[in-house]
Write a structure and sequence with these properties.
Layout lengths: L1 H20 L22 H23 L7 H10 L2 H16 L3 H22 L2 H12 L8 H16 L6 H31 L1 E4 L10 H13 L5 E4 L2 H10 L3 H12 L10 H17 L5 H5 L8 H32 L9 H16 L3 H4 L5 H16 L2 E4 L11 E6 L5 E8 L11 E6 L2 E3 L2 E3 L2 E5 L15 H18 L15 H4 L1 H7 L5 H4 L14 H9 L5 H19 L12 H14 L18 H4 L9 H23 L5 H12 L7 H9 L6 H6 L9
Parallel strand pairs: 5-9
Antiparallel strand pairs: 1-2, 3-4, 4-5, 6-9, 7-8
Helix pairs in contact: 2-3, 2-4, 2-5, 5-8, 6-7, 8-12, 10-15, 12-24, 14-15, 14-23, 18-20, 20-26, 23-24, 27-28
């Protein structure tokens, strides 16, 4: 007995010590600016105890709701549920941002261990019969309650979330749902980790300078820096976009371009980091989940709460764009192939590793403009001033660096954001350059969301993570035109997160249907084509000269260059995504050809109707397509094109205002966009918000006009 007591005392002492030294246990009392994360104090060993305690607290908060003797009300059930899990939100907000932006083997192992625990935690709540019955009791009387629009939608969303996650299932099916959810969580996690590991694993060291013919000095300096980081002599190629894009565009050596392309296009196909078997398990698990809810396909289940609503509507959009763009896309490829043959290309047809190379040369010949012409005018500090200045001109907000805000990596910069009256609005973190611990691409996340506690407004902490060109030994970071566009895109997401004014975290910021979430980001991209905006920041990094009118004219003339090809490429991803998630029966591997070939063939067949370049045997897209297999876009990649239609239509409002008053920075249009789109989050039906801003329904016309595509009869 004494021994047992002693053990209990020791365990309690250890827990107390852990709590005392673990910053997450004291998150309510952080002495940091605006309650930001004390990154300098957070260690890897803090995460698991913090997650476990947070889940314990979260379940206790749920029990308190369920066991409340008072009759269910909106306040004691719906608002109480919405407010639960605060500590978990804090811990997860930090951890999962770092597993994408600054991960390592330790964090990845923790992530693997956490995955089933969090899945079980979520299932325990979602399948809590007592909790659901209280939510249902409030939901059943919703029309009798005096709820505002946001409250009504919160109640509706919570009820449907429970229903769509198994609350109405039989006890047997609830258990099945729990098991499938846990399995899916593990599979998607493993998929994403394989992609990151495969990306980091492949390199090619070049020691002969002659093999680098065609590359400019900046690219060669970057490749040399890659080698130096690895303690090697020469020039090191890898699979990160900052390497692959300039090499595929400029390198004369076709064999190396081919090798680089094949390494990227066969990533996670067979070998140590094979994802083909995982894809089969993911799509079949998702289908099994959909079937539990009497849905024929996962797409049918997934699209229910989107703007598109049904797979039929998604395919209708994809098919309309296919019919409109494909004739021009084929013409673009034929023109490029003719050009290549005129310039010594000896094969019958261009291959994928040839496209970017000859595309850049043709663009240069047609418009006498290239990324190298524009780079000197897009220096990082100036670009930041321009992007921040755009937000100030449209919405009146300002950014001030605060070095007292701790960051998770020395390269990250933290800013305080203030509204037009000087009131604190948000914390903004900017992380620009690639690292081994950072996954590829660019994204926006919130470390902490915006929400109200009584009359106190908890303002959001937003981060943009990107993988843009690094500075070299003799030059600052000089961005390509596309990198500036990407920054504007992700900053549009950030504005959606920073300007939000909502009562509840579940509705704030980017918590909107996924085919609406890309509207603010893609809308923001449009400004890069406006001289009035470019004149505010596009200045030569050495001379201070504003981007010359001649280059602007060439840039504008080239705006529709290969727009149809780019659309066809995106459509191929949309069709691929929908094909995998429109399966009505589990995917069966053909035993004759095996798993790898079965997966490769299926994906390539799905994309064939919009293919304008030859498909190389053995190559595929889905094995490294994190958007749809581990990034939350399953049956949702179409949303980029859906939002593109919206963003072109939305920007046409600003173009109309510009024609009237001479400025693209129209304050009236910006005010409507801010009040109806950026501030409202998911408080109302997305289409209602858009129509209120647009003062009418969106059409495809502005998108076709922007891309130089002739209007087609809409079927």
């Amino acid at each position: 007995m004494k021994k047992a007591i002693l053990s209990m005392v020791l365990a309690s002492t250890v827990l107390a010590a852990s709590a005392a030294t673990n910053p997450f246990f004291n998150y309510k009392n952080w002495k940091t600016p605006h309650g930001t994360y004390p990154f300098n104090e957070i260690r890897a060993e803090h995460y698991m105890p913090a997650f476990e305690e947070a889940m314990k607290q979260g379940l206790k908060e749920i029990d308190d709701i369920v066991n409340n003797p008072a009759a269910p009300t909106f306040k004691n059930t719906i608002e109480a549920y919405e407010a639960s899990g605060e500590m978990l939100s804090i811990v997860a907000g930090c951890f999962y941002n770092l597993t994408s932006a600054e991960t390592n083997d330790t964090l990845q192992q923790i992530e693997m261990e956490l995955s089933p625990k969090l899945s079980e935690y979520s299932s325990t709540i979602r399948l809590n019969e007592g909790l659901f019955q209280r939510i249902k009791a409030v939901y059943d009387q919703r029309n009798k309650l005096k709820l505002n629009k946001a409250q009504y939608k919160l109640l509706e969303d919570i009820y449907e979330s429970f229903a769509n996650n198994g609350a109405n299932l039989s006890p047997e099916d609830k258990q099945t749902y729990r098991e499938l959810s846990a399995k899916l969580s593990q599979l998607t996690l493993q998929y994403g980790q394989n992609v990151l590991k495969a990306t980091n694993a492949w390199t090619m060291l070049i020691t002969d300078d002659a093999l680098l013919a065609g590359l400019n000095d900046d690219t060669k300096a970057m490749l040399r820096a890659n080698a130096e980081k690895k303690g090697q002599e020469g020039w090191l190629l890898n699979l990160k976009p900052t390497t692959t894009i300039p090499v595929m565009q400029d390198l004369d050596n076709r064999d190396i371009r081919r090798e680089l392309y094949m390494a990227s296009a066969t990533k996670c196909v067979g070998g140590e980091f094979d994802n083909t078997a995982i894809i089969v398990e993911i799509v079949n698990t998702r289908l099994a989940l959909a079937n539990l809810f009497d849905k024929k396909t996962y797409a049918e289940k997934s699209l229910y709460k989107t703007m598109a609503e049904t797979p039929e509507n998604v395919y209708r959009l994809l098919d309309q764009l296919r019919d409109a763009y494909m004739p021009t896309a084929r013409q673009e490829v034929q023109e490029l192939e003719d050009f290549a043959h005129q310039h010594g290309f000896y094969a019958a047809h261009l291959q994928p590793w040839d496209f970017s190379y000859y595309s850049k040369k043709l663009k240069q010949e047609k418009y006498a403009i290239s990324d190298d012409d524009l780079r000197p005018y897009f220096e990082l500090e100036n670009v930041k001033k321009g992007v921040f200045g755009l937000a100030q001109r449209l919405y009146g907000i300002t950014f001030k660096e605060n070095k007292n805000i701790q960051v998770y990596h020395p390269e990250v910069t933290a800013y305080e954001v203030f509204d037009e009256k000087g009131k604190f609005l948000a914390v903004y973190y900017a992380d620009f350059h690639p690292r081994d611990g950072k996954r590829g691409g660019a994204w926006m996340n919130d470390f902490q969301p915006q929400y109200m506690v009584g009359k106190k407004d908890h303002r959001p902490h937003i981060v943009n993570v990107m993988n843009f060109t690094r500075p070299t030994a003799d030059k600052p970071a000089l961005f390509t035109y596309d990198e500036v566009r990407t920054f504007l895109h992700e900053f549009g997401h950030a504005l959606h997160g920073m300007l939000t004014r909502c009562q509840y975290a579940a509705q704030s910021g980017t918590n909107v249907p996924r085919d609406f979430v890309e509207l603010p980001s893609q809308f923001n991209e449009n400004f890069i084509d406006e001289k009035e905006f470019l004149d505010t920041f596009a200045k030569h990094y050495k001379t201070g000269e504003t981007l010359p009118q001649e280059l602007l004219d060439k840039m504008h003339a080239s705006q529709t260059y290969h727009a149809a090809y780019a659309c066809a490429r995106q459509l191929s991803f949309g069709y691929l995504d929908m094909a995998w998630h429109s399966l009505e029966k589990p995917f069966e591997v053909n035993p004759t050809i095996g798993t790898v070939e079965s997966v490769v063939r299926f994906g390539n067949e799905a994309m064939a109707q919009v293919a304008v370049m030859p498909t190389v045997p053995g190559t595929q897209m889905e094995c490294s397509f994190t958007h749809i297999f581990s990034g939350g876009y399953a049956a949702g990649y179409y949303s980029y094109k859906w939002s593109e239609l919206l963003d072109a239509d939305a920007f046409s409002v600003f173009k109309e205002a510009q024609a009237k008053n001479g400025s693209i920075f129209d304050k009236k249009a910006a005010k409507r966009f801010r009040e109806n789109i950026l501030e409202k989050g998911g408080t109302e039906r997305a289409m209602d918000l858009y129509v209120r801003f647009r003062q009418g329904e969106p059409t495809i016309n502005a998108l076709l006009e922007r891309d130089g595509i002739k209007a087609v009869e809409i079927k």
